């Protein structure tokens, strides 16, 4: 239902994604029935608390979920092709080439026993068939692009010789080496110092314009969302509970969970009043994903919960133009038919 | 935010299921998992403990009940009935001196089990003591550990062989020789646990608040040592059984008059190309017993410390 | 690096000293008169006296230890009581078969065990993994001489593919030399393969969960590249360490394997020396094996830098 926006087919169209894991004490339904799309060149943020399934979603898109114990179902259409139907070989040709990924932990996401140049060059050799020397030249170029000083020297160094910020730059260089159409960034700035965070975000924004890639940004940091995203998907307990353009979401959140999340962001200037400085917390815990939830997934923590919520799972419904939410009680605004 | 806030007053009646759009139910893409509890569940989740422990109990029963299991005197010589093939009369055949291999193999279980358990017990106790001393007494640590390193540099079978070469063969000496070779491993393990625990804040606090060393050992160190030590003792039991058989096999172990699996094989060695069964039956029993102990060890390790399970 | 190597080499000296002291003292920590023990039950008092004199048992303990170490440093391991030949000569005569057996076993075991462990880790939880783990626990459980007899029975006696026993010197052709060593090497390798395969699997399982493996997958690296380049190089240090530690198993196993396959090597020499209570020979062989073991592990320690750039000395 969300694919109604653009006239042309979206770059990525995820339909009814389910990613479940078999564990010794039950099936963990980490992502359950998630649908969303990303248009070419667009930046979409997926937000939610830790454990809501946002990282699993990003891993599912590239089919990086180990199967077994995991299992992915649904459709992941990238440029019209269902990634879930591709062979392993066809999938490998897409990874790092058309779709690439940046991970949260720059400290551990680079291979400690291979040089930086080798790791960037590997992508180029795999997907563009470059020779060793060409790959190294291109790696140096990429390092320069992401703003690493003395790239000719750094290219021969090992990750442990670089700082955290530099490593994340290397990750970005690696991800962008083959000019991907879609970049999935899983908490790209979470592990970094605040000043470095800003630099990396600037870099991503800058490169996005240069390369023209669409970005799926996975984060729990609403500040980051406000800064870079165009559209936001809010996830809770493995499902999408709300989706809206970024301004609309911040100004008029429909779902009680989103309202809670936004309440949890300290507002600039509010410290003067002294009342709202405390982060609003959402009481309660995320429900166990190992038991089937019959009603609304947020019912256990929702301040406005009714018996109806516990009995009937709300469908995602349009509540305003380009704005959907899954709550029985979220008001629908009048929309032009 | 006000537009989306629910104001019950604006509704004429509470919403009912008929008024709202329900999300389509989602299918299960994986079959459900059923968790079992109780002893059956435990054994199902730890099949190696079940198999290893079961086999172990069976072999212990055989060793204890050997006289009742249709055996004859395992040392009775009968030169007239030498090297008979296995038959209804002699289930596993007879050896060069006409002794019944079946009876010898069953009684042989006793030697292996006694050696295995005794070495496991003594090396655990001695190793624990040395490890504790070395972990707590700073000045002793350097010396003790150098000595242990030195002993560990001598391949353990070779060390046991060397020790046995100088003493008269007896089950007691076999146990002693293998124990000496195994002690360094245990003391290293215990010392490692002590040193890592000493770094723990709660042990630090206990030391700072003046808790006596014996109390710290009793309260904090021993409970944490027990799990890895049990696992280690199981493995030592298995390797001691193999060591005993090797010592006996090369003629430096249990005295030939006592039927042990190594001895039976050593005696069958000269004839193994023509009468392979004399070597075969004790070999199978020995391998099965060691396998049982090893499976038990693996199972205990996985159960007691799932994290350790990933290491070796 | 060089300074570190030097420091490591110096650090092995106390270990070797403890080994030497221990091996030397073995003779004296045993109960009773060592000369009488060595001479055996049927010895005459004259025999005992002769042995006592040849061992220098009439002089103080530490003096004797000093003399002994001095001799060893000069390459003199003493004289056999039984053959009256220098122990070093006897060892030199017997070293080729043992060295051949151990080198072949080592190469064979590493070539089989590492891929086995890698595949088991890759296919974790499948029947392949279970088969490898079952093989490993069997390798630990079935004693080397049992494997030896089984192999000899099947492949030499029944199928007649390979020689049952014996050894052909390398100088007489690589073919016969190798043929004679296949069965002993497989028998000796069993427990070693089990050990290496298990540590490889365990380390690979840990490495395969690391974030950088996920990164490599996300880059489109194929399964082989993931396993053998990205993961194995990270797993190398523990694997190589265990390969070194496992040499102790090879040494202990060689003694037995040589008896089973009638290989005239150091293992046979040890067993014969034990049966004859030829103590200088026993001491010499144990000392040689232990020093070899210490040196192998020293070399492996120094090799770590090749596998992991984070290790800097």
UniProtKB/TrEMBL annotation, chain A:
One protein family per Pfam: ABC_tran
Domain ABC transporter: 14-262
NCBIfam families per record: oligo_HPY
Major localization listed first in the record, in broad terms: membrane
An example Gene Ontology molecular-function term: ATP binding
Locations listed in the record: Cell inner membrane
Organism from which the protein derives: Muricoccus pecuniae
SMART domains per the UniProt record, alphabetical: AAA
Entry superkingdom: Bacteria
Protein name as annotated: Peptide/nickel transport system ATP-binding protein
Automatic annotation (TrEMBL), chain B:
Annotated compartments: Cell membrane
Domain ABC transmembrane type-1: 113-297
Residue spans crossing the bilayer: 49-72, 113-137, 157-181, 277-297
Name by which UniProt lists this protein: Peptide/nickel transport system permease protein
InterPro entries (UniProt xref): BP-dependent_transpt_permease, MetI-like, MetI-like_sf, OppC_N
Membrane listed as a keyword: yes
Keyword Transcription belongs to the record: no
Topology in the lipid bilayer: Multi-pass membrane protein
Domain of life: Bacteria
Family stated for the protein in its record: Belongs to the binding-protein-dependent transport system permease family.
SUPFAM superfamilies: MetI-like
One example of a Gene Ontology biological process annotation: transmembrane transport
Any one Gene Ontology cellular component term annotated for this protein: plasma membrane
Keyword annotations of the record: Cell membrane, Membrane, Transmembrane, Transmembrane helix, Transport
One Pfam family this sequence matches: OppC_N
From TrEMBL, chain C:
Pfam families reported for this sequence: BPD_transp_1 (PF00528), BPD_transp_1_N (PF19300)
Record field: transmembrane: 9-29, 99-122, 134-157, 177-197, 235-261, 281-307
InterPro entries for the chain: BPD_transp_1_N, MetI-like, MetI-like_sf
Gene3D superfamilies: MetI-like
Residue span(s) of domain ABC transmembrane type-1: 95-304
Keyword match Cell inner membrane: yes
Membrane topology label: Multi-pass membrane protein
Major site of localization recorded for this protein: membrane
Domain of life: Bacteria
GO molecular function list: dipeptide transmembrane transporter activity
A GO CC term assigned to this protein in UniProt: plasma membrane
Coiled coil start-end: none
Subcellular localization, as worded in the UniProt entry: Cell inner membrane; Cell membrane
Keywords, alphabetical: Cell inner membrane, Cell membrane, Membrane, Transmembrane, Transmembrane helix, Transport
The keyword rRNA-binding appears for this protein: no
PROSITE patterns: ABC_TM1
Similarity section: Belongs to the binding-protein-dependent transport system permease family.
Biological role: Part of the ABC transporter complex GsiABCD involved in glutathione import. Probably responsible for the translocation of the substrate across the membrane.
Name of the protein described by the UniProt record: Glutathione transport system permease protein GsiC
Lineage: Bacteria, Pseudomonadati, Pseudomonadota, Alphaproteobacteria, Acetobacterales
């Amino acid at each position: 239902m969300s694919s109604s926006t653009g006239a042309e087919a979206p770059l990525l169209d995820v339909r009814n994604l389910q990613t479940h894991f078999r564990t010794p004490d039950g099936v963990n339904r980490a992502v359950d029935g998630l649908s969303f799309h990303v248009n070419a060149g667009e930046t979409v943020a997926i937000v939610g608390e830790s454990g809501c399934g946002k990282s699993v979603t990003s891993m599912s898109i590239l089919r990086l979920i180990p199967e077994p114990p995991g299992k992915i179902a649904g459709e992941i259409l990238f440029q019209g092709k269902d990634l879930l139907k591709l062979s392993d070989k066809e999938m490998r040709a897409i990874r790092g080439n058309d779709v690439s990924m940046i991970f949260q932990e720059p400290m551990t996401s680079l291979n400690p026993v291979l040089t930086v140049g080798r790791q960037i060059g590997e992508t180029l050799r795999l997907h563009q068939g470059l020779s060793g020397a060409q790959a190294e030249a291109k790696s140096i170029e990429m390092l320069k692009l992401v703003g690493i000083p003395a790239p000719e020297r750094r290219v021969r160094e090992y990750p442990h010789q670089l700082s955290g910020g530099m490593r994340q730059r290397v990750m970005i260089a690696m991800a962008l080496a083959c000019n991907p159409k879609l970049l999935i960034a899983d908490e790209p700035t979470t592990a970094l110092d605040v000043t470095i965070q800003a630099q990396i975000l600037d870099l991503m924004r800058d490169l996005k314009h240069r390369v023209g890639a669409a970005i799926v940004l996975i984060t729990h940091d609403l500040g980051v969302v406000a800064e870079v995203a165009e559209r936001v998907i809010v996830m809770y307990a493995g499902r999408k509970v709300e989706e809206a353009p970024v301004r609309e979401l911040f100004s008029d959140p429909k779902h009680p969970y989103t309202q809670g999340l936004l309440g949890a962001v300290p507002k600039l200037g509010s410290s003067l009043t002294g009342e709202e400085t405390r982060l609003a917390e959402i009481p309660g815990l995320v429900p166990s994903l190992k038991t089937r939830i019959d009603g609304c997934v947020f019912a256990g923590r929702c301040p406005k919960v009714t018996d109806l919520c516990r009995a009937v799972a709300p469908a995602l419904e349009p509540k305003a133009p380009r704005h959907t939410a899954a709550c029985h009680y979220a008001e629908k605004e009048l929309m032009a038919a | 935010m006000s537009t989306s806030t629910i104001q019950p007053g604006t509704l004429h009646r509470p919403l009912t299921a008929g008024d709202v759009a329900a999300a389509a139910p989602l299918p299960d893409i994986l079959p459900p998992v059923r968790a079992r509890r109780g002893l059956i569940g435990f054994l199902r989740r730890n099949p190696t403990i079940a198999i290893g422990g079961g086999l172990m109990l069976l072999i212990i029963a055989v060793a204890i009940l050997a006289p009742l299991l249709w055996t004859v005197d395992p040392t009775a010589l009968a030169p007239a009935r030498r090297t008979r093939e296995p038959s209804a009369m002699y289930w596993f055949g007879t050896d060069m001196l006409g002794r019944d291999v079946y009876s010898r193999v069953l009684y042989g279980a006793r030697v292996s089990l006694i050696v295995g358990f005794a070495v496991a017990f003594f090396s655990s106790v001695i190793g624990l003591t040395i490890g504790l001393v070395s972990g707590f007494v700073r000045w002793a640590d350097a010396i003790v550990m150098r000595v242990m390193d030195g002993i560990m540099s001598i391949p353990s079978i070779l060390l046991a062989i060397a020790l046995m070469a100088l003493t008269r063969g007896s089950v007691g000496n076999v146990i002693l020789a293998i124990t000496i070779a195994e002690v360094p491993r245990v003391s290293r393990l215990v010392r490692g646990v002590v040193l890592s625990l000493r770094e723990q804040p709660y042990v630090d606090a206990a030391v700072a608040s003046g808790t006596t060393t014996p109390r710290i050992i009793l309260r904090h160190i021993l409970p944490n040592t027990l799990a890895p030590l049990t696992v280690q003792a199981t493995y030592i039991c298995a390797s001691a059984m193999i060591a005993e058989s090797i010592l006996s096999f090369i003629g430096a172990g249990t005295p030939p008059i006592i039927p042990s699996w190594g001895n039976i094989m050593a005696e069958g060695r000269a004839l193994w190309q023509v009468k392979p069964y004399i070597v075969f039956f004790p070999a199978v029993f020995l391998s099965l017993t060691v396998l049982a102990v090893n499976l038990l060890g693996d199972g205990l390790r996985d159960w007691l410390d799932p994290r350790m399970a990933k290491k070796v | 690096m060089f300074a570190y190597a030097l420091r490591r080499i110096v650090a092995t000296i106390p270990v070797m000293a403890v080994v030497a002291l221990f091996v030397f003292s073995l003779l004296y920590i045993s109960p009773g008169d060592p000369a009488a023990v060595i001479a055996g039950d049927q010895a005459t008092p004259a025999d005992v006296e002769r042995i006592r004199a040849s061992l220098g048992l009439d002089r103080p303990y530490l003096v004797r230890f000093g003399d002994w170490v001095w001799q060893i440093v000069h390459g003199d391991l003493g004289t056999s009581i039984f053959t009256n030949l220098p122990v070093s000569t006897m060892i030199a005569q017997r070293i080729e078969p043992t060295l051949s057996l151990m080198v072949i076993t080592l190469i064979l075991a590493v070539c089989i065990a590492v891929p086995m462990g890698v595949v088991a880790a890759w296919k974790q939880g499948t029947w392949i993994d279970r088969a490898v783990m079952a093989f490993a626990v069997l390798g630990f459980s079935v004693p080397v001489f049992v494997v030896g007899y089984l192999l000899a029975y099947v492949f030499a006696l029944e199928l007649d593919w390979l020689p049952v026993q014996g050894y052909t010197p390398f100088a007489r052709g690589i073919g016969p030399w190798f043929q004679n060593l296949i069965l002993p090497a497989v028998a000796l390798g069993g427990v070693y393969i089990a050990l290496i395969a298990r540590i490889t699997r365990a380390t690979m399982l840990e490495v395969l969960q690391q974030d950088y493996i996920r990164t490599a997958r996300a880059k489109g690296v194929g399964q082989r590249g993931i396993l053998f380049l990205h993961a194995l190089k990270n797993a190398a240090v523990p694997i190589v360490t265990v390969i070194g530690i496992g040499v102790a198993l090879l040494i202990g196993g060689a003694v037995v394997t040589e008896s089973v396959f009638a290989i005239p090597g150091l293992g046979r020499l040890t067993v014969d020396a034990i049966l004859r209570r030829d103590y200088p020979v026993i001491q010499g062989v144990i000392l040689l094996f232990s020093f070899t073991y210490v040196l192998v592990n020293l070399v492996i320690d120094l090799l770590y830098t090749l596998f992991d750039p984070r290790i800097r000395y």
